[in-house]
Amino acid sequence: MPMTGLSGHIIICGMGVLGVRIVEQLHAFGEPMVVILYAHDSRLETLLERWGVPCLLHGASGSDAFADAGIDTAAAVVCADPSDVVSLETALTARRLRPDVRVVTRIANTVVRDAVEQDNGPGAVLAVADLAAPSVVEDCLRRTTHQVDVAGIDLTVVTDRIGRDATLRELYGDLAPLAVAHGAENPYAAEVIPSPPRDTTVSEGDWVCMIGSSDELIEHGLLDSRPEPDKVHAAPTDPRRVRPRRRGPVARASVVIRELIEDLDPNFFRAMAVMAVLVVTSTVIFRFTYTRPGMSVLDALYFSAETIATVGYGDFSFLGQPPALRIYAIFLMVCGVTNTAILVAFVSEVLVSRRLSKSAGRRRARMMSGHVVLVGLGEVGIRVATELISRGQTVVAIEMNPDHANLPVAEKLGVSVVFGDGTVRETLLAAGVQRSSAVALLASNEMANIEAGLVLKEILGQRWDDGTAHPTVPVVLRVFDLPLGRVVAQRFGFRNVRSTVELAAPWFIAAALGLRVIGTFSVWQDSYMVGAVTIEPRGGLDGVRLRDLSPATRVVAIDHTRSGTVERNPRRDSRFDAGDIAYMIGPYAELISVLRLGRAV
């Protein structure tokens, strides 16, 4: 049934885990939406009904579906289906129907994504793996600082543990606090207070996240030296292998045969040609020269094979045959045995080399120390491996599927792959987790990641990252649902739990709303966003003072374009004027709420 009376709404296609999170957040912001469902799903339909979000049921996201969803008056279309094919079809259809609408598309395949990005028009083409991987890499490398470029000023975000009871102003002066976690041994399992006032009282053992210039942080003992340039990530991309479609048995058999032919030594085929010449020549000779009682063509072929294989069944022999034929038989047996041995050697080489290639990762891992172990070579896993290797790290990956599509990419990167179940103790030990510098559990199955994490906790023992000062191994746990991540961190002591959905959703939401996002980073479990907004004349932020904004956001700088000055660490009485550019940091939900105000005119 067509939707009527809607204008400036957002059309959501693809209600996977990411799609549900996007709809949930847009609903919280009060954005009008229409959801297109491809099939009946009572759970989703009940959820959307509770939120008051209208939905349409269409077998495909074609022209009719978009027409019923009101694409002519829509502000944006979000294609968040987990399938690249479905997202691509949806995005191209939406772009054809409305060239000027913002189209935000989820595509993991880099080749296709790059092609879509060319002359794409308004919107964005994003990959969850590219958005989530940088946070995982930072956890693996124990990076507790993040650099942010705000109005041409390099600022650094750091975390610190409070050593005495005091206010934040007494401890850190005019440094801007971004978050505080009270009374928690593990801040990853605690409730975080975003952007607290400087007069907030903190106690010994609390955790705090601060932002300031390198010189200011060094002055307060929060930095030992200037950090190396490494800006807050903005969704980097990396070449990836195209994911093949599932083929039929005949096609798969032909692929196996073709791969076997490619693996065989070229001399194998020369040896086969020599064998064929021996068989044909011997068949002709035996057919016309073998006497008493003589041979048919089939008999000659049979006796040739029997002689080459040096077996005898008593049915034919060279007893009583001409000397020349007996001499030829000697030659044939010697050549046949030699050629057979050569053929067997070539086949054995292929079989052994394949087995060795599958066990090569285990052999290399035995000799490694200080490497990073990744469990899972999916989209996120291969992206994390690429980033780690670009930073000079050695990577060992555990993968259950020996035919995984990303294995050629891993081989090219130099990743040592251990084949096996990442939840099994022996497999983890084979990857050298007890000698590793970090472990990232990145399988697409949450329960498998949690199980592997618990096995790791037992293996690592005192090296388990519990926040103490002794040398530990950080373990990064991938989950999809942030509330699950919090309770898992609290119950089992995980300190680095990352929700790929929480890390990626802000980018899709901001792109759909047409907002300017500079970058994102993580403060313990929470995703923080760095954004900028231009204050429009008579807009929602024109003339607003900072004290009237959401207390969860932190305005770190105001670029007064009319006067050409930049106000750093503005106070609560500072005011936005038309033409100013405000730079803000905060939890992405609160920050997007503030940035949206700048759209109203």
Compact summary:
With 601 residues, the protein is α/β, with parallel strands linked by helices. The chain has 19 helices and 24 strands. Strands 3-2-1-4-5-6 form a six-stranded parallel β-sheet, sandwiched between helices. The chain has a six-stranded parallel β-sheet with strand order 16-15-14-17-18-19, with helices on both faces.
Percent strand equals 15-25%
User: Uncertain runs with pLDDT below 50, 5 residues or more?
Assistant: 231-247
Radius of gyration: 33 Å
Helical content band: 40-55%
- Ends apart, CA distance between termini: 33 Å
In DSSP terms, counting alpha (H) and pi (I) runs of 4 or more, how many helices?
Answer: 19
> What's the average pLDDT?
84
CATH topology of one domain: Rossmann fold
**Class per helix and strand makeup:** alpha/beta
Number of strands: 24
Biggest beta sheet summary = 6 strands, parallel
Membrane topology: Multi-pass membrane protein
GO biological process, one term: potassium ion transport
Keywords: Membrane, Transmembrane, Transmembrane helix
GO molecular function, one term: monoatomic cation transmembrane transporter activity
Keywords:
19 helices, transmembrane helix, six-stranded parallel sheet, 601 residues, Trk_Ktr_HKT_K-transport, single chain, Helix Hairpins
Write the layout of secondary structure elements.
Elements: E1 10-13, H1 17-29, E2 33-37, H2 42-51, E3 55-57, H3 63-68, E4 76-79, H4 84-97, E5 102-106, H5 110-117, E6 123-126, H6 128-140, E7 145-150, E8 153-161, E9 166-167, H7 168-172, E10 176-181, E11 192-194, E12 201-202, E13 207-212, H8 214-219, H9 249-263, H10 266-289, H11 297-308, H12 323-366, E14 372-375, H13 379-390, E15 395-399, H14 407-413, E16 416-419, H15 425-430, E17 438-441, H16 446-460, E18 475-479, H17 482-492, E19 496-499, H18 500-513, E20 516-523, E21 526-534, E22 554-560, E23 565-568, E24 581-587, H19 588-597
Parallel strand pairs: 1-2, 1-4, 2-3, 4-5, 5-6, 14-15, 14-17, 15-16, 17-18, 18-19
Antiparallel strand pairs: 7-8, 8-13, 9-12, 10-11, 10-13, 20-21, 21-24, 22-23, 22-24
Helix pairs in contact: 1-18, 6-13, 6-18, 10-11, 10-12, 18-19
